[in-house]
Amino acid sequence: IDCEPKIGTVELTQTGSCRYKAASLNYPVISVDDCQLKSLETIGTGYSFIEGFTNLTGQNLRGKKVILFGYGKVGRGIVHALQTQTQHVVIVEKNDFIINTLKRQGFNAIAIQNINHIKDELKTAFCAVTATGSEGFVSKFLTKNDFNHVFLANMGAVDEYGDFFEKNDVLFDKKPINFSLLAPTKREFLDPILYAHNIAIDMLLRGVLPIGVQPFPTDLSNDIINEWQSIHSL
Description:
The protein is of the alpha/beta class.
């Protein structure tokens, strides 16, 4: 953390929240990322992935096999959106609990250590997308030759493909492809996050918060979700 605020700070992203949690702080940080409200933005990001892919490739994902690396917040949003397009989604994860949960839900989930299984699935894949949050993740396990004739996309904040892949091997030069759009996340999914951000600023200005990282309050998060659902008839 390069600079120190006078009152505190509000963090919207997982990457930033992790940095604050690892730092020695003497001020409060409210993490909007650490509340259920962030799931709305996650859903919107998933739909933006599909839109970005279509705009960049001129192809659609209807009925196609997609390999997803990582089933965190962004990954869950991508799967949610892909279910409107295809039933052929393969999820690669490192967390055994998540893998077993996905399998019970009927998903095709593979442990990252099962390299041969992943390579077999890639032979018939149309698109691979990363959402692990880990820089250079794919190059730790696979090479470019394992992805012949597969569209490669990144949805992480960092280059998740790594040194074995050139910029032109991956759509949008390895950058998150939703940022190829004029609106990386549609406004109706982003508005509640920014609303929570403004509420969190008011909380900091009251000056009663403890030092360190704390999630945006659950009760306020639930109130915003309920209001959002009523506005959008969901």
